[in-house]
Amino acid sequence: MFLDFTAFPTWVAVSSSPISYFSESNPAGKIIVLLLFASSVAAWTVMVWKFMELSKLKKINTMQKNSLSGLNSLIAVAVSKNPTIDSTLSKVFHSGLMAYHSEVRLFGNPQTELTRNRCMKNIENAMSRELSRIGLYYESQMTTLGSIVTAAPFLGLLGTVWGVMEAFGGVAKGGSATLQHLAPGVSGALLTTVAALIVAIPSVIGYNYIVGYIKEMTLTLENDASELAEKFEAELCQDESNLR
Q1: Of 189, 197, 208, 210, nearest to 39 (Cα)?
Q2: C-beta atoms surrounding 128 within 10 Å
Q3: How far apart are CA 83 and CA 92, in angstroms?
Q4: Distance of alpha carbon 145 from alpha carbon 161, whole angstroms
Q5: Based on the structure, what is the number of domains in the chain?
Q6: pLDDT, tens only, 154-171
Q7: Measured between alpha carbons, how far apart are the two ends of the chain, in Å?
Q8: Boundaries of domain holding 153
Q9: Is residue 225 part of a domain?
Q10: In this predicted model, what pLDDT tens digit does every residue of 183-201 receive, in sequence order?
Q11: Is residue 96 part of a domain?
Q12: Which residue from 87, 171, 74, 67 is spatially nearest to 137, judged by alpha carbons?
């Protein structure tokens, strides 16, 4: 049995829009296209929201770094019981400051090298724990975006294979192998692949960009935290020398 290609131009003229392709898809293909549409909305929501959030945090962290750099003493800053912390750098600084005051409250001012080292270790551990929590916060929702990037092409492939399988199955049952009977089902099946690529391409670009942005912000925050730790240590050494 041979395919009748004479019907091809007529079919193209009748069916050439995404809506018509969608109507020609099988039920599974339509469900997959709708899932991909929902995934696209979710991906764009995550990308836009995450980029705006990280950009805001980066700007606030820069302002907070300038503010901390202008302080004569870090350990002299009063600890608030209910601090209003609007930047991740402030959280790191506050965790170190809390560790210092906790050490002083328990053991008094560090007056020897041993007590100073113990105090610095507690400060660095507190700041390190806060950095880990912030790292998780930076990466929140990225699992959702990464899942969409990974799953979208496979959903599209599933819809295409399923649609082509049904199209050929329908031709086999009907006993007619003309292109006019086969092409609508195949085009509807291929729509899922097109939809998957439309979802996956911008999502993977956005994902890679945001991951790079998070790495940059994480590295910057770690460097700023290291500078704060060095300043804490310098002030403790200065206090020790003054006591002598």
Answers
A1: 197
A2: 15
A3: 13
A4: 25
A5: 1
A6: 999 988 888 777 767 666
A7: 102
A8: 38-65+86-177+197-202+211-244
A9: yes
A10: 666 777 788 888 899 999 9
A11: yes
A12: 87
Within a domain: residue 8? no
pTM (2 d.p.): 0.78
Residue whose tokens read 């009907």: 174
In a domain, 188, yes or no: no
In 3D, which of 36, 5, 8 has the Cα closest to residue 22? 36
How far apart are the C-alpha atoms of 82 and 230, rounded to whole Å?
26
- Judge whether 178 and 4 are in contact, CB under 8 Å: yes
Tally of residues, the chain: 244
Buried b (16+ CB within 10 A) or exposed e, 221-234: bbebbeebbebbbe
**pLDDT tens digits, residue range 98-135?**
988 888 888 777 777 788 888 889 999 999 999 999 99
In our burial notation (b when 16+ CB lie closer than 10 A, e otherwise), range 152-179 reads bbebbebbbebbbebbeeebeeeeeebb
Contact 120, 236 (CB under 8 A): yes
Residue type, position 110, single letter: P
